């Protein structure tokens, strides 16, 4: 199990939090997604077949790119 915390500057409201949580949860292997509106972060717990590359690619696709 891997836990990552990403900075996602585009998080601006509760809708963003909901979108990120529901979309990232769809990736097979993702165990939990906790997006935070105030800090503009997301804590994601996952296992294979999910990977950081897949998660970051999806976030970029739905217009919430991770800040490096
Ligand atoms: Cu929003």
Layout of strands and helices, then pairs:
Elements (H helix, E strand, L loop, with lengths): L1 E6 L6 H12 L4 E7 L4 E6 L5 H10 L7
Antiparallel strand pairs: 1-3, 2-3
The protein binds copper (II) ion.
What's the short story on this structure?
The protein is an alpha+beta fold. Helix content is 32%, strand content 28%. A 3-stranded antiparallel β-sheet has the order 1-3-2, covered by helices on one side.
Structure description:
This protein starts with a strand and ends in a 7-residue tail after the last helix. The longest helix is centred in the first third of the chain and has 12 residues, at 14-25. It is globular. The chain has helices spanning 14-25, 52-61; strands spanning 2-7, 30-36, 41-46. The mean pLDDT is 98. By secondary structure, the protein is an alpha+beta fold. It is built from two helices and three strands; from the N terminus they run βαββα. The protein has a three-stranded antiparallel sheet with strand order 1-3-2, covered by helices on one side. It binds copper (II) ion (CU). Copper (II) ion is lined by residues 12-13, 15-16. Residues 12-13, 15-16 line the site of copper (II) ion (CU).
């Amino acid at each position: 199990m891997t836990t990552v915390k990403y900075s996602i500057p585009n998080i601006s409201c509760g809708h963003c939090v909901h979108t990120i949580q529901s979309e990232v949860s769809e990736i097979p292997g993702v165990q939990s997604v906790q997006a935070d509106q105030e800090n503009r972060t997301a804590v994601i717990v996952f296992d294979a077949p999910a990977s950081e590359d897949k998660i970051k690619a999806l976030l970029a696709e739905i217009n919430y790119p991770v800040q490096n």
